[in-house]
Design a protein that fits this description.
mainly alpha, about 65% helix, 2 strands, Serine Threonine Protein Phosphatase 5, Tetratricopeptide repeat, 5 helices
Length: about 120
């Protein structure tokens, strides 16, 4: 049996792997961000809900890999910041808006180039 003193905290790689796994599950099972945020997934209810900074991290990680859901997660994080007492920091909010602008710019450029 492993002693408590020999356990180590999750590393940044563990954290990023978990975020990527959530995004992969979302894509594979066509889960909505709203269901993941509320903790209600296909009728199963969790006691945990995602906060604005969780949504921000999911959106930021998704954007790094050009993920389909990146803009959805970042928009949800910004919306949550408007209504929740514990939202994104000013730095996170600025970063989210910059990432969203880059995503929209890519989409716009693809649309223009296909005309």
């Amino acid at each position: 049996m492993m002693q408590l003193s020999t356990l180590s905290w999750p590393t940044a790689d563990d954290y990023h792997g978990a975020v990527r796994a959530i995004l992969r599950l979302q894509r594979t099972y066509l889960l909505t961000s709203d269901s993941l945020i509320s903790g209600s997934i296909h009728g199963l209810l969790s006691r945990s809900r995602l906060e604005a900074d969780d949504m921000y991290e999911l959106g930021k990680m998704a954007a790094e890999s050009d993920h389909y859901y990146a803009s959805e997660w970042l928009k949800k994080a910004v919306e949550c910041t408007k209504t929740a007492p514990t939202g994104l920091s000013k730095e996170q909010l600025t970063d989210a808006c910059i990432i969203l602008a880059k995503i929209y710019n890519k989409v716009w450029l693809r649309t223009i180039s296909s005309l």
